[in-house]
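QUALITY CONTROL LOG
STEP: pairwise intake check
CHECKER ROLE: data steward
CRITERIA: each record must contain a sequence immediately followed by its structure tokens, with no blank fields

ENTRY 1 OF 2
RESULT FIELD BELOW
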Amino acid sequence: MNGVLIIDKPAGLTSHDVVNRARRILQQRSIGHLGTLDPMATGVLPLVTGTLTRLAQFYTSAEKTYEGTIRFGFATDTYDAEGEPTASLKEVNLSREQVDALAAPFRGVIEQTPPPFSAKKILGVPAYKLARKHKDVVLKSVQVEIKEFEILAVEAARARFRARVASGTYMRSVAHDMGQHLGCGAHLESLRRTAVAEFKIEDAHTLERLELVAQQGSADHLFLHPRTLLPQFPSVSADEATAARIRAGRPVNLPELSRARLVKVFRGQRDLLAIATRIAGTLFHPKIVLCGTDTPVRRL
């Protein structure tokens, strides 16, 4: 069973919890996800199953889009609503103009320090494990890019926003740092991811729907059409002779794609056979083979 399924992750579950639920529902062990979401966060969590788990390498730097709410007035140790307040509440009543001005320096390429409760490692140990033991967590700032950061509405101490960011950006840190700049503290009250790369919230399904559909029969129709994956790579359909060479890991000529560096090779219209990389001219070598001779093919 090889495919990509978009789950609308509920609050309260880790990304790994969702993977475990999907494994049970689909009765398949080989399932991974593309991009961790914090337990508090909801929204787009792409799951890859079977041999398509090997596509994860192409999504490590995927762009992400979020909507959420920043609560001004106090900071927390986790930088979100699940943490403990680090100072007493300050009453604030902000205007849209104030928050717009506050958000401006956070657009573009900026230096950002990850939250202490994060998966960033310190001498090989995840920072959150040290933070839970109340040990000092000192993380280095890193360069991140916030491509869009729009304040949608402001009401008293809360600001709703939409952001489009490069991989590695923490919206929890954005909220925390905005509170520091304002001098009253702030934290991320809610967060919903609406897109990861080409995967959109409109294509997402709840775990409850996945389970219901699976109980009624096949959940195949909930999976994305493989031709929609990695749209930045052109596609080519291989004949049987070419497909056989690719399955054997041998280079092939693809004259219609002489300018592309990476291509998706399909057997027919729906079976993603491989991702191939150009060696020279029209000669391509399979970078990863997704449907080998012994691999069950998922027909979506």
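ENTRY 2 OF 2
RESULT FIELD BELOW
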Amino acid sequence: MHSIEALSESERVERYERLARKALTVYALEDAGLRYLGPGTNVVFRVQTDDGRWALRICHPDRDHDTLMRELLWLVAINRDTSLSAPEPVIMRSGELLRSVSMPGISGFHPCMLFRWVKGRPADELTVDHLRAVGRMTATLHQHAGSFRWPEELSIKQSPLPALAEALSALRVRGRIRGEDLAALQAVIPATLLAIRILGDGRDVAGVIHGDLQQGNLIYHAGEARAIDFERTHWNHYAYDLAVTLGELSSRKDFAQLRDSYLDGYAAVRSLPCHPDEHLPTFEALHALTRILSLLRTERLQNGEGSGIVRAAAAKVRRLLESE
């Protein structure tokens, strides 16, 4: 059997649509209208009926179920305990939150989950009002995370740094990274360890985070910022979320105003989790390292295509660490 990735996009979508309808039987939505939402880490369909709209996410068979459950359970709690509009997992008639589905023509068992649709649109041009709303929303997430706990069997509180260091070593062994770039990326590890020692790991500075609050995962409705795609939810320092959001705005001419508005919005809800000038560059560098290692695991970048991305990431890391 040929890999599904070898098929045309229309053929892939047709097969995934059949799998989606099978997954939707447990919600009695197998006859709903489906709209494919484009390529990405997961396959996502918008599900539409006269009674409502949902998003069906089809994950890769290799996805860890415990990781998915941690995401789903936090989203259930956010929707229960806060006024935030976040994707709400739909509970199946069996009481489960996810189901692994297989289908002839698609290899493996794919974890599938259904979310209530979050109303909103991305911003065409970010303003200080958008960033202030994002700051308030992020602070509310962190405020909730301070009291949230996963069930004991799913609990995890560990630094991602050992895994990142191991991945860097693997790149070096395979000769996929220049020595000077490796040195720049490796410098992120001790810099982050130092920041963590200074900040500690109390509930006021660390807990469950979204992990990917970049603008592609933020939508806006009626003056409110709303986060979507909680796939990278994990335990980390709250500063990481701040660094992700602000990091991609640093080239804007009005960055200082956007940054101040974001931090003001955050501080209106809870105290800042770190000194921005001292610690955000380190966590932005950590995010750059995390993203580059994630990208280099994809098939698209397996055959030398990733060298330019590595060099760009290393250059960014150098700038960030030198700015501290």
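INTAKE CHECK: passed for both entries
DESCRIPTIVE NOTE, ENTRY 2: Residues 128-323 form a domain with the Aminoglycoside 3'-phosphotransferase; Chain: A, domain 2 fold (CATH 3.90.1200.10).
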